[in-house]
Amino acid sequence: MSLTMFGLKKSPWVYHVNVGACNNCDIEVLELLTPRYDVERLGMVLVGTPRHADALLVTGMCSRQAEPRLREVYRQTPKPCVVFCIGSCACTGGIFRHGYHFSQPVDHVIRDEDPDAIIAYVPGCPPKPEAMIAGAAKALATL
Amino acid sequence: MSIIGIFLVASVGTLAMGLVSSWIDRKVTARVQYRVGPPFLQPVYDILKLLGKETLVPARAQGRGFLLAPVVGLAAGAVAATILWVANVMPETGFLGDLVVVLYVLTIPAIAAIYGALASGSPHATFGASREMKLLLSYELPLVLAVLVPVVQMARAPEAGGASFAIGAIVGYQAAHGWVLGSLSGLIAAAVALVTMQAKLTLVPFDLPEAETELMGGSMVAYSGPPLAMIKLTRALLLATAPVLLVTLFAGGVSDAASPMAWVAFAGKYVVVLVLVVLMRNTNPRLRIDQAVRLFWFGLAPLAAVALVLAWFGM
Question: Where are the beta strands (DSSP E) in A2-117?
Answer without folding.
Answer: 13-18, 45-46, 55-59, 82-86
